[in-house]
Amino acid sequence: MKKLRVLVLTHESLVPPANLDGYTEQEVNEFRTEYDVMTTLGALGHEVRVLGLYDNLAELRSAISEWKPDVAFNLLQEFQGIVTYDQHIAAYLELMRQPYTGCNPRGMMLSRDKVLSKQILNYHRIPTPKFAIFRRGRPYRLSRRLAFPLFVKSATEDASLGIAQASIVEDHARLRERIDFIHESTKTDALVEEYIEGRELYVGVCGNGRLTTFPAWEMDFGTSAGGMAGIATRKVKWDLNYQKKHNIRTMRATGLGEADEARLARLTRRIFRALHMSGYARMDFRRRADGGVYVLEANCNPNLAQDEDFAQSAASEGLDYAPLLERLLRFGMHYGAEWRLEGH
After folding, report:
1. Of 11, 154, 185, 255, whose CB count within 10 A is highest?
2. Nearest Cα to 215, choosing from 300, 101, 309, 278?
3. Domain assignment present for 264
């Protein structure tokens, strides 16, 4: 691949240092993705600049206008501190006619909205748990058409914000209590869905038109599963000490037959297309003991750290980290945005 000018976009607090000397493991974990992307692209010979953003679009406009990057590597997960505003950065990049990596604005909007995405998946007959939405600031009636146990989470927040063992509720009293907690703690609507007991599987996918899926990865809850439900709480996902204490890790899913892997891959591609996604994504599934598979969430622009499941799953198929990043660069540079169409 020819050498490119790559503008890496990230939150202003996650701009990585030139090296990791003097940083603790927990500190490094905060900006691990940004560091891995920056250093790997630099080692490949690309000219890399990192731009940290919070709420100033003028800085982004100046960087694009003055430096004229070949492609922006979009690692932003929010803007102005609001998760759902990251889609507007991708839209702004399109208005600037700036190629960028990752998902397009429409795909980001549809996949970030957990309620809307589930409605679309239902329309396409893609299996997802039955659900109901409880709006913040509005009186609500507890539906009796959903079967307990139920799982309560934010309708828009990601990174497991607001998810704990208490998210699984067994009766109406606990359900009301958890809905109120989500409303108050995350300031978002609450999504309530039927809890699916089973294995938690992740399938990565990348591409624009022609899609490549990677082998199913699985969350191993280690010793934390003893006496508790196996769910990816915020502590399970982000607390390094807790992970080490309980030997929590992700790994290639074992015991799946060819038919199971093929079905997961097929569902992943269907979800990706149904939600108009592009670039790369990770689909989260639950697989019951009877073999039934349900999609929990579609994650656009998932964690790209070298030791995270997306990159590890790609590496298990022979696509190492550096060529994976270069593949994502190519997808970004060749994505068929509207401004590329004839006559624009």
Report:
1. 154
2. 309
3. yes
* Gap between the Cα atoms of 271 and 283, Å rounded: 8
Q: How far apart, in whole angstroms, are the C-alpha atoms of residue 271 and residue 161?
A: 23
Same domain, 190 and 203: no
Surface-to-core class of residue 18, CB atoms within 10 Å of its CB (0-12 exposed, 13-18 middle, 19+ buried): exposed
Report the distance separating Cα 262 and Cα 271, nearest Å: 14
> Could you read off the pLDDT of 164-212 as tens digits, one per residue?
888 899 998 999 999 999 999 988 899 999 999 999 999 999 999 899 9
pLDDT below 50 — which residues of the chain? none
Relative orientation angle of helices 86-95 and 105-112, to the nearest 10 degrees: 170
pLDDT of 220: 82
Domain boundary among 101, 116, 146: 101
Question: Does 189 fall in a domain?
Answer: yes
pLDDT for the residue numbered 223: 65
The predicted model scores a pTM of 0.90
CA–CA distance, 309 with 312 (Å, rounded to integer): 5
Query: Which one, of 64, 46, 83, lies nearest residue 9 by Cα?
Result: 64
Q: Of 81, 101, 121, which closes a domain?
A: 101
Which structure tokens are listed for 42?
């630099």
Structural domain for 86, as ranges = 5-101
Look at residue 281 and give its three-state secondary structure.
Answer: strand
> How many CB atoms within 10 Å of residue 282?
23
